[in-house]
Amino acid sequence: MALYTAKFPGSRSYEAEIDRAVDWIEAASGEGPVVLAGDFNSPITTTQKQYDQVARRLDNLGLVDVYRTARDLEHGEPPVEATYYHHRRRERGFHIDHIWLPADWADGAKVDVGDFDTWIAPGLSDHVPVTAHLDDSRFMATL
């Protein structure tokens, strides 16, 4: 499932939009594995608590943030690489793009995060790509 959260009139927050996506995943549970990936626009400092609540729901569904798994980050430990640069300024980086997938798929996964000089500096985007490279044998057995 691809996700791009946006604030529309009447929407409460980016995290509320993510929460709605988790509702859809819960409704479809049992129909096969799910990958939720995209521009979550969260968390930033002011929304960390709300994001943590949504992340707990995803954890409870057996999904993990493959970036955090690949970087061996403990709960609460901040990401070391930004995926978005506010106003395309290097010092205003946030990690708001995510790939959540089944926990057993994340074992041995490699994650690459694009760099500022390649993507942001030349004006290609205000985000850098996040890609996950998975061991085929991990997920082919579940399809």
TrEMBL record:
Q: Which SUPFAM superfamilies match?
A: DNase I-like (SSF56219)
Gene Ontology MF term list: endonuclease activity; exonuclease activity
Q: Which Gene3D superfamilies does the annotation name?
A: Endonuclease/exonuclease/phosphatase
> Pfam families annotated for this entry?
Exo_endo_phos
> Superkingdom of the source?
Bacteria
Record carries keyword Nuclease: yes
| The entry's keywords | Endonuclease, Exonuclease, Hydrolase, Nuclease
- Protein name (database record): Endonuclease/Exonuclease/phosphatase family protein
Organism field: Geodermatophilus siccatus
Q: Where is the Endonuclease/exonuclease/phosphatase domain?
A: 16-127
Keyword Nuclease recorded: yes
